[in-house]
Amino acid sequence: MAIDPQTPILVGVGQIVRHWDGHDIEDAPSPLGLQLAAAERALADSGAGEALRQMIDGVVVVRANHDSIEGVRHPFGRCANPPVTLAAGLGIGDARCIYSVVGGDQPQALVNEAAEAIFAGDAKAILLAGSEAIATMKQALKARLTLDWSYSVDGPWEDRGLGPSLLTDYERVNGLGMPTQTYPAFEQALRARLGLDRPGYVALMSELWEGFSDVAAMNPYSQFPQSRSRDFLATSGDANYPIAEPYLKWHVAQDAVNQGAAVILTSVGTARQAGIDPAKWVYLHGYAAVKDRAVLERPDLSRSRAIEAALRGALAMAGKTARGIEQLDLYSCFPCAVLLAAEVMGVDWRHTCCTVTGGLPFFGGAGNNYSMHAIATMAERLRASPGQFGLVLANGGFLSKEAAGVYSSEPVEGWQPRRDDGGQRAIDNAPAPTLLAETTDAVIDSYTVTWKKGQPSRGYVIASNETGRVLARVRTGHRATLASLAEQDAIGRSVHIVHEKGVNFVEPASRLGEPAPAGGRAAGLPARRFAHVLVERRGHVLEVTLNRPEAMNALFSAAHFELHEIWDDFERDPDLWVAIVTGAGDRAFCSGNDLKVTAKGGDMSIPPSGFAGLCSRFDRTKPVIAAVNGVAMGGGLEIVLACDLAVATASARFALPEVKVGLYAAAGGVQRLTRQIGRKAAMELILTGRHFGAAEARDLGVINDAVEGDALDAARALAERLLENSPSAIRASKEALNTLENLESLEEALAANSRIFGRLMRTRDFREGVSAFAAKRKPEWSGS
Questions:
Q1: Catalytic residues
Q2: 35: closest CA among 94, 99, 111?
C-alpha cells in the first residue's frame, strides 16, 4: 500500500501519575513538572527521542484547571506562559506555542487540528501535553505548606483564552452553574426517558461505574486504582456522600489528581526521516468535532445531538461502524455521557467495555487533559493489537463540545482532512424551545438538588407547559423547599413558578402554615417540613415558635436556615402583615447559640439573613414582635433587639454573656444594644455579661413592656392593635426607618463582624470558652 508521506500519525505517547504523601515540599508534583515528565516519556516512547525533539516545531499545552475559570487566583502562583515554558524545559526552540481553550474535548480536538496542520505541511512534528496537580494543591493547603508554581519563560505564544461562555445569562441566573449542578439536567431527563425510578437509576449508574473502576484498578497511571463494587457505589455513606441528585461522590469525576499526559504527532515522511519504527505508528482514520447549542436551547435533554454528530462523523470518515471498533474510551465525567454515547453507537455497555483508562471518577478527572490519557492508552493498546480499531470520544462543557477520533495501527491510504460538517449545520439550524421568564405553572421534566456537607445547598427545576420551557431555581438558603424537592421523584409533578426581578423561582407547594394540596403527583411537590420551628397563621398574623425546649430553644445552623426561609416567605406573603416570634415551653425564649453543637464541630453555616434568619435582615417592611417567655440570652437577646417590638413576661431574664465563654455578641447585639439604650449602659451590659430582668429591660428600652401574664397573649394583643392601622402605612414607616439605619451604616458595622469574629475564632480563649461550656466547668482564660 502506497502511503502519502504527509499522512499524520501518532509516534510517541507518555503518561505519569504521582501519589504524593503531602510532606516533602521538594518532592511535591507541579503542573510543569508533570508536563515535562510526560513529554520526555512521549519522546522516549517514539524510540527516536533526540531526533524527534529537533523536529518538533509545535508545542500545545491543554489549558489547566486553574486557568479555566475567570478571576480564580491560584494559591501558589501560576505559570504565565505554559507552552513556551514547557518548550524551554524540553530544549525545543523556534516552535509555534499554543495554550488551548477550555474544554475536555481539547485533547482530541487538538489531535484533529495537529493532523491537518501536519498534512498541509504547516508543521513537521507537534507535541500536545497537559497536566493537573490539584491533589498536590489540596494537600499543601491542608498542611499549610507553601509551594511556588510561578516559574515561567517568556516568548511568543497564542493564548486561546476561555472561549465563549457555555451557559447563557438566563441559565446562570436561574440555577445552572458548575458541572455537578448542570449535568443532573441530562441525567434526570435520561432517567425519565428510560422509565426508571430513582433507586433503579442509581443502580444502573453504579453497575456501569463498577466496570470502569475495575479497569482503573489495573491501570498503572490511575490516581484511584481500586475496584469499587456496585453496592458500594449505590450506597450513601461517609465515603460516598450525596453531591447532587442523582449523584453520590463516586458517580462524578474526581479532580484531586496529580497526572500528566503527552502525545507527539508527525507525518509518515518525517517519522521515516527520524528513524521511528513503523510499529510505533498509530493512524487517525477518522475524526470530527461538533458544538451543541446552549443547554436549554436543546430540544431533548435526554439526548445529545453533538455526541451523535461527532461519533457518526468520525466513524463515517473512517469507513467503520460501531461493530468494527474493538477498543473504546467514551468520556466519563458523569454516567449520562457514557450512556448517551453507547446508545448512539448501539453498544451494550454491560458486555462491551467503554473505557481504556478507567474513567474520570476512578482513573482520575485530570481537568481538560483527561482524554490525552485516553489517547495515549489507546495508542499503546492498538500497537499491542495490530489491525484493531479504537475510538476516543472527548467531551467539553455541558455536553457542549464533542471531539471524536478513530485510531488504528492499520495504515490509511489516501488520507484527507475532514470536509463534511453537515452534523454541525443540523444543530445550528434546528429550532430551539421558547424559554419563559414569567410567573407560570408547568410540569417538571428534570431537576436537581445539590448537597454541601450533608445539607441541601442549591436546586432547580426544568419544566414545560404549552407555552414553552422554564428553568427556575430554589431561593437561596431555602433548605426546607430543597428538601421537599429532593424528598420524592419530582419529574412529572406540577410546579408553580414566580418571576421576580429577572429570576424564576420555585414556589413551595403551600403557603406558610397551610397544608400542601392533595391529589398525588399532579398536585405538586410535597409539603415543606420545619423540624425546629413551628409556624401558625392567625388571620394576618404569623406566629413563629422556636421549638427546641429541651435545649432552652438554643439555635444552630439547621434552625437558622428554617427561620431564614420562614422570614423570607413572611415578607413576600401579601396576606401576612405582622409576625410574632416566641419560644416553646415556659423556660426560655431563646438561650442563644447552641454551643454544644459548636463544641462537637457541627455545621456552623449561617444563612445570608444571619442569626435566626433575622439579625442580618435589613430590608424588612413588616413588623415583627418578640414575645419573650423566659430566658433571652446571647443570640436570644439579639433576636429581641432585631425585632421591631418586644413584650416579656415579668420573670424573663436577659443578657449578652458571650464574653464569659470567650465570644462576643456578633449577631448585632453589640451594635443594636448600643443604639437602643445608649453607649454607657450598653457597654456595662456587653463587657460584664451580667443578667438583667424584664423590668430593667423595659426601663432601658430593650422591650416595650413587661407583663405579669403570658407574653404571647400580650404580643397577640399588640399585634391586633397594629392590625387596626393601615398595613401600607406601617410598611412605609418601616421603609423610612430602614433608610435611616442604612444612613447610619448598621449594615456596614455588622459586616465588620465577620472579620472580627474570624480573628476571635483563632484564639485559645475561643476554644477554651466553648470547651468549658460544653464540659460545664469554669474556663481558664489565657488572653491569647
A1: 638, 658
A2: 99
